[in-house]
Amino acid sequence: MKRERTDAARNRAKILAAAEGIVAAQGVQGLSMADVAAAAGVGVGTLYRRFGDRSGLAYALIDAREREFQAAFLEGPPPLGPGAEPGERVGAFMRALSDRTVEQLDLLLMAETAGPMARFGGAYDAYHGHLVMLIGRVRPDVDAFCVADALLAPLAAPLLAYRMRECGVDVGRVKAALDSLLDGLLG
C-alpha cells in the first residue's frame, strides 16, 4: 500500500474537517467543492484531484466515520467491543449503529439511494457478519443470517430519515424499539 505524503495527509484532514463543518451547518445540499476548498484553505483543483467530485467527497466523509465505528465494535472496549457477553454486545452495537446512522443521516441517505443495491456490500456486510456471529452465539437455534437483516432494516437511512422527519420519531424511540426486539430475541 502506498503511503500518503505528510502534506497530503494534512490537506486531507483539513478538507474533511471543512466538509464536515459545512454539512453540519448546511446539510449535504450545502456541500460545494468551492466552499469546501475555501474553508480548508486549498485550491479547488486539489479537491477534484483528491476526491473526483462532490459525491466522492461525501463518500470520504462517510468512510472516515465508518472506519472509526468499525474499529470500535471490532477492537474497542466492551460492551461494544470484545470482552462483553454476545447478547450485551448486540444491544450495544445496535444502539451505536443507530447513533452512527443519525450522525451522518443525510450523507448515508445519499449513498444508500445511489442505486438499487447501494446500501449493501462493504459496511452493511461488516455489520451483518458481526451480528450473525453474535446472534449465533446467543441463539444457535435461530436463522441468524435472516435475523441480522431484520435488525438492520430499521436503520436503513431512507426509512430512518422518513420516520424521523415525517413521523416525528426520535432516535431514542428507535433504540427503545430495537431493545424490545432484542429482549424478545435474546432474552
UniProtKB/TrEMBL annotation:
* Keywords, comma-separated and alphabetical: DNA-binding
- Locate the HTH tetR-type domain: which residues? 9-69
Which residue spans does the record list as DNA-binding? 32-51
Q: Which Pfam families match?
A: TetR_N
Q: Where are the transmembrane segments?
A: none
Q: What is this protein called?
A: TetR/AcrR family transcriptional regulator
Ranked from the top, the taxonomy reads: Bacteria, Bacillati, Actinomycetota, Actinomycetes, Streptosporangiales
